[in-house]
Amino acid sequence: MDCKIVPSICSYCGTGCGVLFLVVDGKLVGTMPMKTHPVNEGKLCIKGWNLHEYVNSFIRLKSPLIKKEGRFQKCSWDEAIGFTAQRLRSIVQEHGPDSVGVLVSAKMSNEENYLAQKFARAVIGTNNVDHCARL
Amino acid sequence: MMNRELKNQVKQWLDQGVVDLFFAYRMLDGHPLPHAFTKDRIEEVEELVTGPARYPLEKLAGRIMTFYPEAVVGLVARECDQRALNVLSTWNQVGPERVKTIPLSCCPSNLKEHSDCTYLEPHVSGTCKAEMGFKFGSTTEDVELLSPEVRFNHWMYEFGKCIKCYGCRNICPVCFCKECSLEHPDLVGTGRLPPEIPLFHIVRAVHMAGRCIDCGLCEDACPAEIPLRLLYTKVNEIVKEVFGYETGTSPGQSPFQVLGEPRMPG
Question: In chain A, N or C: fewer CB atoms in 10 Å?
Fold first, then answer.
């Protein structure tokens, strides 16, 4: 009988509430708040209570997709990144670096947010960086 | 029961196959978390802790038992857990022969350094809540001192903070309906906050009549600090007065078993 209660952090917003996952036979089947976590003290919002549903959702993307001939088709990571880099480069070349904007959010970690703004400023060469918290 | 005795008892039950899983608390990264102790990893029982943090272990156990229909589980049970188990077994959610409990004392005596319950810890009520709503620790007598108009306004203030997280229902150890009225599209609309008040909370309160075992986990789980336990206490006071039924201790199901008219035989 494989039953585990695994502590984790909610992946939705920047608050970072402590959650407990109920894992049965390796599958995530339920979510509960962590009562002693200093951030949420045993309370969750509706998104946090339903983490187990999105993790197992059948509509989660499992591979990169590229639109070819009007339809999204599965592709490899290399192909996806290569295609994106080539398109970004040509947009910057044609319309200048300020034609690109980078939007970050609290769903990403602080480190990822730092990386994104570094990418915008140092790589693309634009100051057009904003965050969903400012909206 | 002292911790040493408790650990020995759990080990013995697991070792002898009295139970397949034992639910109690284990210290992990500084947090006392619910844990399913097994015979395979019996050494983990050494890390078993008891303390004020409360989780609905009987709800967890019930959930796990749906995956393992043959399992017999054990759990540490405070008095509220025991009442919840009584109600769950009365409503055929948990077979009493499949659950074995070790009682955990939660008596709030001054002789104990700290009672084993988060509910007994002092809560500070914010000034706005104290003035416009109900302070923590309010009793039904406190509320009944207020006039009906003032009482209604205070309740509407409290309900107005609701963010419809369903935490009260999700954590409730005796809530088990597969189709919850609070998610019925004809009863409860979607897309705005707060949900339609006081209807949303009254629907829940009515369903808690003869069901709520007064554990207070709903109040613990409410991010808006709505005094839910107080509301359900009042409902169950009425149930006791009118029907003589005390949820969790009176034997058998509550009087609210039949919807509509009972069908006559023959």
Answer: C
Where do the structural domains in chain A lie, given as residue ranges?
3-55, 63-95, 97-135
Which residue of chain A is at minimal alpha-carbon distance from B56? Answer: A32
* Number of domains observed in the structure of chain B: 2
Torsion-angle region of residue A87: left (phi > 0), alpha (psi -120 to 50) or beta? alpha
Q: In this structure, are B136 and B233 located in the same domain?
A: yes
Range list of H helices, B104-247 = 127-132, 140-144, 148-159, 167-171, 199-207, 217-221, 228-243
What is the domain extent for residue B180? 122-243
Residue pair B77/B104 in contact (Cβ under 8 Å)? The answer is: yes
Instruction: Please judge whether B54 and A4 are an interchain contact, meaning their C-beta atoms are less than 8 angstroms apart.
Output: no
User: pLDDT digit of tens for each residue in chain B (266 aa)?
Assistant: 578 889 999 999 999 999 999 999 999 989 999 999 999 999 999 999 988 889 999 999 999 989 998 999 999 999 899 999 999 998 888 888 999 999 987 877 777 666 677 777 778 888 999 899 999 889 999 999 999 999 999 999 999 999 999 999 999 999 998 899 999 988 888 888 889 999 999 999 999 999 999 999 999 999 999 999 999 999 999 999 999 999 988 888 888 876 666 666 65
CATH architecture, domain A3-55: 2-Layer Sandwich (3.30)
- Candidates B25, B42, B171: best to mutate against A (most CBs of A within 10 A) is B171
> A4 vs B71: CB contact, 8 Å cut-off?
no
B33 lies within 8 A of chain A by CB: yes
Predicted complex ipTM: 0.89
Are B90 and B130 within one domain? no
Min distance A107 CA to chain B CA atoms (Å)? 19
Q: Does one domain contain both B63 and B134? A: no
Query: Is the same domain home to B84 and B170?
Result: no
Q: Is B71 on the interface with A (CB under 8 A)?
A: yes
Q: How is A56-88 classified by DSSP, letter by letter?
A: T-TTS--S-EEEETTEEEE--HHHHHHHHHHHH
Which pTM does this prediction carry? 0.86
Residues B170 and B229 placed together within one structural domain of the fold: yes
The whole-angstrom distance between A8's CA and the closest CA on chain B is: 11
Chain B, nearest residue to A31 by Cα? B170
Chain B CB within 8 Å of residue A42 CB: yes
